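Re: the request from the purification team.
They wanted to know what the chain is likely to look like in 3D before they choose a buffer screen. I agreed to run a prediction and write the result into the notebook, where they can find it.
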Amino acid sequence: MTEPAVTRKALFDALIEHGVLDEQDAHEFSYGPNGDERPPLGRILIHEGVLSVGQVMDVVGRQVDHPELRIGELAVQQGYCTAEDIERCLEIQRDLLAHPMEELLGRRDVDPAALVRALSSYIGALESALGSAALHALAPV
């Protein structure tokens, strides 16, 4: 299951717009301070039993000749797994990155009023993207 594009982007746009984060902080929250702190997809594919170490090495080697293709695409092309296997492992990879709100709530330098304004703006973007009826249907009773 892929995350709707509006959710993460709209959240970071709202956090920047309302001064909760600057663009550098937003990048670090989105990808981690070193660019990407999620485990590599190959490691997840091995851990989940989708590919062997040898298959991951083969796919990584093929990527040298085909840098425009992603690891998952090459693994599917080689018949090592299905697109559904890749999507499931990508979802695991995405879930391993902490949600930005968890990180923000632990920071002392965040202005609570600016955070509330940013979240209100984010909810507005979600309502526009999903339709307010769909969003209200998701609200707890």
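For the purification team: Residues 14 and 118 are 5 Å apart (CA to CA).
Please add any questions underneath this entry.
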